[in-house]
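Before relying on records like the one below, remember that each one covers exactly one chain. Contacts with other chains, cofactors or solvent are not represented anywhere in the record.
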Amino acid sequence: MTSSRTCALHFSLTCLIALPSLNAQRVQLKDALPAGSAAYLSFPDLDTSISELKNMPVGKMWQEGEVQDFFADGLKWLEDRWEEQVAEGNKLYEEGKLPVKPDDLMGLRVKSASLGLTSMSISMPEGAEQPLPDVGVYLHLDLGDSAKIWQQLVAIGLGQIQANADKQVEQLSSKVGDVEVITIKAVDSPVEMSLNIAFIGESMLIGSREGETKTIIKNLISGEKGLSGSSSYMAVAEKLSLPGAEAESYFQPGAVLDFMVDIAGIVSSMPPPSANSPSAASEQAIRGMLQPEAIERAFQAMGLRAYESSGSSSTYTGGRSVSRSFCKINPQMRRGISAYSGSNLDLEFLRWVPKDAVAFTATTMNVGAYYDALVDGLKALNPEMGEMMLGMLGSFEQQLGVSVREDLFGSFGNRVITWSMPMSGITATPEMAILIEVKDKDRLLKALTVAESMSNGIIELDEIDRRGLKAHQLHVNPPIDNNVMPMNPFDMFTPTFVFEGGYMVVGFTTGDVKRTLARMTREDDPKGDIRSNEEFAPYLQQLPESGLSSVSFTDWKAQFEGMYQMGTSMLAFLPMTGEVPIDLALLPDAYSLTQHLSGSISWVKDSEDGQETMSISPWGPETGFLLGTALGVGASSAWFLGATRMK
């Protein structure tokens, strides 16, 4: 006898692997969302994206003969099992035991998908015993010719919800023109949130608020511009590459800040704790700080309200994914964190990066400015408490003879540069270098020494002299518990650092530090550094001439080969049950995969009105989708095996 879980698998696996059909989305959700919506995510043309995927590295890797040979037996095994289950499901349908024929489910399609967040808040409605969220979230799917099959599945699902709810929910039906809206909501719910589903032609809209869902339906029908016509959206969209994009996103950071203010309002309005409670004083002090007005003052003081909106787009171009993003920052509201502009990164550091490095990153920062922003936020949150805490910190600093602001954060400069070399093995310490700009090494060492004395032996800072290299080594000794952590994981690494040329030069071994110092003092010769790396060189001319605040590069041919070799060597330790036919002897050669890869680069450019990011990579949005699909297929396959054993 077939288990119910096996029957349910027909539906879950079909929905998981269903491919799009060949038409683009006719109406976009961003047009119909309210102008002030908080967030939007869209995959506007899945058909074209899937078609273009074959020319991306992932698609070319899959088409390699060695890859096809390796997966052939496993795919044939899965195909046979799937056909058996479909045949069994068709028989159950003919016997009237399944409401939908599995063969019909093979025609399910999703041509495009969009997700919108209009707003989110939390409140204490009258009659409610605890705070309740109120979130406006909307999913719009273009289903093409398979819309009727989807409608049948939705009807079955809604019937199941009602059957399991035991009269705790009610189902209502209403109309927006000729469009029927099905609403499922909890009986006597104090909030408007509900499940609202409507089919508009070949598309389906699922929303969390009945009234807002109907408004969006009207806009979808009329074509009236909402979010896409707002000044906030257009200020971001003009910086992106939206025509032909595989994915698009939009976000208003202020929506999250507003939500936090709402939470503060709920907390501050809760009944005061009992005077007899031992923690009454501390609870009351915390609630005093969590006043909505105080939270808002802190946000303003830290400069968080300057971040107005952000968006991104990703397109496939020439076998690579080109992603752009832009964060709009209000120039008049810049202060605190948002006031810092790191557009002072020059490319002189490139002569230090080894030619065969697999990755490097250079960025600008100002930790002192971030510390000052936090202090300003604390003072704005509660001036009296802020002054009291700073006074306590000052007294503590006086006893230690060190200043957190001046000796620690103030000792660092604005640049951080890192690079790493190819991986040589699972147990080998990765070779890498970290260069942190330092303005005052004596003050920094003083602060680190104080931290060591306060750590009760957890941190040890030693001064060493190895073959003429005078350096400092950092040892971390966490408490060892045989039941929780039987060994010290930090024994694998011994961070070693020296101060040279205005930088704190850090490596995991003294050899790494010596090699880095040699590179920092070498003559400027592009043939011996990353500028002559054939994967990086084509990107060098594309970097902006001004406003550059961050740049990073990865040689994916070398990086992937190292990870692949490590991964395949680890497969030998995995137990093979024999249920799924996989022959590790047929594993593809690394070159079969890496030949399709290229280097990736990303950079950040500052401007008066915001921050732009550009990324060019062999990996695009499909990577996350395929990883998620792989996990889903793996979970479904495990469910399938378990279900078939119970038959």
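Residues 1-25, 636-647 have pLDDT under 50 and may be disordered.
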